Amino acid sequence: MIANLGYGTLIITFLVSIYGAIAAYIGARKNQPSWVDSARNAMLLTFPLLTITALSIIYLLISGHYEVQYVTEVSSSSMPIYLRVTALWGGQAGSLIFWSWLMSAFATAVTLRKWDRDREFLPWVILVSLVTLAFFLILSIFVENPFVTFWQSATGNITTAMFQPAGTTLYIPQDGNGLNPLLRHPGMIFHPPMLYLGFVAFVIPYAFAMAALITGRTDDRWIRITRRWTLVAWLFLSLGLLLGMRWAYDVLGWGGYWAWDPVEIAAFMPWLTGTAFLHSVMIQEKRGMLKQWNMVLIILTYDLVIFGTFLTRSGVLSSVHAFAQSAIGPLFFAFIGLTFVASLSLLSRRWNDLKSGVEMTSWFSREALFLLNNLLFVGIFVVCFWGVIFPVISEAMGIVGQKIPTLAGVFTGQKVTVGPPYYERATGPQFAGLLLLMGIAPLSAWTYSTRKTLSNAIWKPLVASLVVVAVLWITGTRTWPALVGFGLCALVTLVTLFEFWRATWARHKTHGENLLQALWNMAGKNRRRYGGYIIHIGVVLMALGIIGIELFQTETQGTIPQGGQISLGQYTVQFDSLSVFNTTDGRNVARAVVSVYKNGKYVGELHPRRDYYYESQQPMTIAGVRSNMEDDLYVILVDWQPLSTTGATFKIYHNPLVNWLWLGGFVFILGTLVASWPDKEPELVVLRKAVPAVIKA
Amino acid sequence: MFKKSSLAILLTLLFDLLVVGVVSAQQPTPSDDQVNAIAKQLYCPVCENIPLDVCPTTACAQWRELIRQKLQEGWTEQQIKDYFVQQYGARVLGTPPPKGINWLVYLVPPVAILAGIYVLYHAFRSWKRPAQQADLPPSPSQAPAETNPAQDEYIKRLEDEVRKR
Predict the structure, then answer these.
(1) How does A354-391 read in b/e, with b if 16+ C-beta sit within 10 Å?
(2) pTM for the structure as a whole
(3) Is the dihedral of CA B36, B38, B43, B44 positive or negative?
(4) Which helix (H) or strand (E) holds A90?
(5) Which of A162, A163, A127 is nearest to A148 (CA)?
(6) What was the ipTM of the complex prediction?
(7) For A382, which of B113, B131, B155 is closest by C-beta distance?
(8) Cβ separation of A417 and B96 shorter than 8 Å?
(9) What pLDDT, on a 0 to 100 scale, did the predictor assign at position B163?
(10) Which residues of A touch B117 (CB under 8 A)?
(11) CA of A529: which chain B residue's CA is closest?
């Protein structure tokens, strides 16, 4: 009953979306506002409709309707209520509905904005949003239907179908399989919604970009309207990535936070192009340049969002065979291909309109440095994209080897792994390049920087950061990538703090405010700039953590009897006891108690454990972590003998500086919040812009 | 003669003892760290993208034991890696072995980045050239009315704001 209601509203939403898209098209083409209004209403209707669909799934999950396949797959009666609610995004079918629901929420919010001066964009923004939504609804209705139900035939065969096949009765399993234990962590509860919010929010600037291309209003109006949307999208995407990293660190039990897994990279790629876009739109706003490039970036980001959604849940790219088996893969690729080609053809139609008459005046100007920044972000993206798709290409090309025996040695069709060593080597120098730019660019000015002005500005912080490197060298740091990394971190920190200081001091002098007031007001007046600088500080802090764990991580493993000890660097871990017990929520827990000594001094107790979930028959490793700003001691219970006195195997990681990564994450998000916080007086900006134009005229 | 040959026998025996000593020094079970050092570089042949040293499945535990056994038999790191590749294919390696089509893995990113640098360089030049020519005579009038070029634009904006108040 509820399943039918949910499915029914899903179909109605799809029809409404299609109608809305057509109405928007007619309204825009024939210039009939009544059609546009109708399209707008259709757009607004999708949100309540999808809310009904999403609530239907949540109801089925909470009330334990195990006859619905999705409910059986992702929930069980032993799960607490909040986990059953969040199981909405615990599996692919539910995630797609959740995605559509968020997409509709964002598109609705955009539709409800004031459209006074840019009404010609409205129908096209609706069209793009609804076409995107309709695509996801097609997937939900025809391929990944979350309401599919179990049916049992007279012979006892169990099948799944939306509607009752002839000669079958409803089959209700006793209980569900339960949510994958790895997904029960708080990080995983919030990580997908954040990531999805980031994904869907990027559809909005793309929709405006397309509207600008179609209507021919190719000035930077669309960029100004979507500036905040883009920042919000970026905020959520960054938050999603950070939560995912934290989740991996806490739950996956391999002592790290990032494994360059295709699923991680899928979410990272739109972030990379989105970050490039955030920087390059500033060049368009300030200098009127790079209009074509910004279009390319936002188109790329949109299609990477679709690609990412598809990759994160399906894991389809792991193998050609998996891809061919599921109908969802070809559909996704068709949609990505279509939107990409359509967007690029629109862009090529307006290519000449987007040319700017403005010239680059200096190699050392801010815009030139921003272009280098774009090159590096896109370079990292190319490395990531190629690493993700190469295994599939390699496997698929095996056909060539089969058909042409002489080429069999080249096109072996062998499945290969493109793992962390590839990504680390290829992206490491580029990340370092980005840090360097972060240190230089704030000192350059738009248009007029020359080599002389820039070197005048940079030599002091450069010398200071070289002093930092020298101190590190003297105190025994000999790893040269670390020295380069720490040196760059010092440079960015000094330059950024100097920028804050300089502006605060200038305001203090001119306004007579005290320094704190001056800092607050100065940052408040130009939140995007200073929010951006806070983000840079966040990146530096994160870089410290990354350098620490990537270059200085040490590990050891050993089996020790009760009372035995393992040493790693300054630390000694002593195995005190182990208990194995069952919990009421269906887990078998093996929990060790270990004492930690640092330089022979007792510093505390850790409880690494292994939870085994009976329902899903999956183990989960929970590390015991002693954490402070200097380092983490990360202890994993690898194995144990039935009698704890016999012994247990522990793996111990020493992760220096890793907490700076999480601290940096907080600062990063704080900076993004500052940059995207709504302006109190948006009209003033317009007024200020208008004044010079009048004077010129 | 006899003396010489008995010396030779003695030396041979001593040498044998030494060899036995070395061999028996290899006998103790290799430590977990020695096993993990190799397992770290290999990927679980059944799970996707999980290095063998951290994979929690039973199959992977058995593979780690296999590494230990091979180490004990005196195999080198390279021999063990080769053995795994032979048994389970190139996918067990962290990066594709550079042969055949796999070269593309290593060539495409640098080529793409170099192409990017080339495009950017040319774009810069084409942007800059007309600007330089046009810039020379009228530059005093075009340049902002700043005496100090290092003065940043936002200080100017701060001053604008002061004037507005």
Answers:
(1) beeebbbbbbbbbbbbbbbbbbbbbbbbbbbbbbbebb
(2) 0.87
(3) negative
(4) none
(5) A162
(6) 0.79
(7) B113
(8) yes
(9) 55
(10) 375
(11) B154
